[in-house]
Amino acid sequence: MKLKYEFSIQEVADKFVAVAKNPETETVEHVFNLNETGALILQALQDGKDVAEIVDLLLAEYDIEIQDAEKEVNAFIDSLKDNGWAI
Q: Global pTM?
């Protein structure tokens, strides 16, 4: 999976905002809100981590089962693809 945009993630008033910038034109294409988990996953994807590495990050950060972490990561990636933000 490859991200189509460069994302800037900022915490604003206990929420996270992601700005998707087209790397070719430098224009802002999308702005959207994320929860803490989504911000962690998106940042990890930008850092080049694969699904297994991101699952490990979630397991270290939250008290969840591995199946739930895998489901969360895969659902997030599917959402990125469905929105055309990843290929």
A: 0.91
